[in-house]
Amino acid sequence: MRVNERVDVDVWVESKPALRVRARANWLYARAVFHRFRLRFLILLVVLAGGGALFSALSSPEQEVTFFRGLYYTWCLIFFEPPVDFPDNLVLDVMFFVVPLMGLMILVETFLELSIMLRDRRHNEREWSRMIASEMSNHVVLVGCGRLGLRTLGHLLKMRMPVVVIESDEKNAFLAQVRAQRIPVLVGNGRDDRMLADANVAKAKSIICCTNDDLANLEIALDARRLNPGIRVVLRLFDQNLANKIRDGFNIHVAFSTAAMAAPSFAAAATDPSIKTSFMVDGQLVVVSRIQVQAGAELANRSIADLCGGLSMHVVAHHPAGAAESRTFPPPGTILRPKDQLLVQLRFEDLSRLREMNKARGGAPEPASAP
Questions:
Q1: Which of 71, 215, 233, 347 has the fewest Cβ atoms within 10 Å of its own Cβ atom?
Q2: Domain locations along the chain
Q3: Side-by-side strand order, sheet with 206-209
Q4: Longest distance between any two alpha carbons in the chain, whole Å
Q5: pLDDT at 181 over 70
Q6: Which of 46-55, 109-118, 248-257, 270-279 is predicted with the least confidence, judged by mean pLDDT?
Q7: pLDDT tens for each residue of 134-152
Q8: Residue burial 281-315, b: 16+ Cβ < 10 Å; e: rest
Q9: Measured distance CA(290)–CA(342) in Å, rounded
C-alpha cells in the first residue's frame, strides 16, 4: 500500500478541514508563538516605555518632549535613526548607545527565530504539532491510527473534540487523511514519556489507546495516568478477562475488549438482516433495526409516542415515504404512514413483537426493508 494512497473508511469527515478547524489551529499556533516570544516582547516594551519616560523627564524644557514623543524617539533609536541631536544629558547619552544595541538584538533574534518557526510549520511537522498541542487543554490524545483509530478520530471530530494523534509508523497510509484535517500528528513510540509530554497529556481530558498491542496500550495508559492522575483512559484490548482485571485493578475508567464488542454484532447480523448494529447493556442485547411500516399493520397510522409507550423502544430516525431525507429523533407526535422507514433501538427479544405488530392484517409477511 502506498503511503499517499487514500483509504476509504466507514466514518470520516470532509476532505478539506472546516473553517472552524483551520481557525482553531491558526489561533493555537499564534498563541504558541506569542508564548515563545512573550519575554522578549516584554523586554522590548520595557525598553520603549523606559526610553519614553527618560526622554520626557530629562530633555530640556524648550524641546517639550512628551512621553509619546519620547516613545517615538526610542523606537527610532533602535534602528540607529535618532530624530534629535546628541543630547547634553549623561543618561540620554548612554541611551543613544545602549538602546540601539538592546532593541536591535531583540528584534533580530525574534525575526530569525520566527522565520525558523514558520519554516518548521511547513517542513517540521513534529515541532508544529508539539507547539499546537502545548496550547491545548481538555483535548483527547489518540494513540494508534489504524482503521479503528481513524474511525474513532472521525467520530471525535464530528463531536468537535480537539485531538492530538500519536502514531508509531511514519509510513501509515492513514496519516495523509489525518494531516489534511490540520490535526497535530506526533510520529513516535507512545511508550516514550516525551511523546506523551509533547501531546500535552498533563492537560488532556482523555487518552484512547487503540494500537494492536495490548501490553503497549496498558503501558501507555499507566504512563498517562502517572502524568495526569485525573485523565480518562480508554483501552483497546482483545482479551475480555484482561480488560476486566485492568478495569478493576488499575482503576481504568473504560477497558473494552474488541472481541467482546464485535461478538453481539456478528450474532445479531446472522439472526436478522435488518439489524444494523447491536451492543450489550447490563447483560442485555440491544439492537438497532430498520423496518418499513406495512399498510394495514398495527403500526400504521399510530404516533411514535403511542408506539414507544406500548413497547420499550426508541425511534432513532424516521424516513417518510417519498421524502428525500430522514429525520433523526422525530417528534413524539409524528404519525407513521405505510411505507415509512423507521430506524429503531430496542432489546433483541422485543424485536419479534415489533415485527408481529408490523404484519398486515391477514398475516401477510413483512417484506425486507431497504438497506
A1: 215
A2: 19-123, 127-260, 272-357
A3: 185-187, 163-167, 140-143, 206-209, 232-237, 254-257
A4: 112
A5: yes
A6: 248-257
A7: 888 999 999 999 888 888 8
A8: eeeebbbbbbbbbbeebbbbebebeebeeebebeb
A9: 6
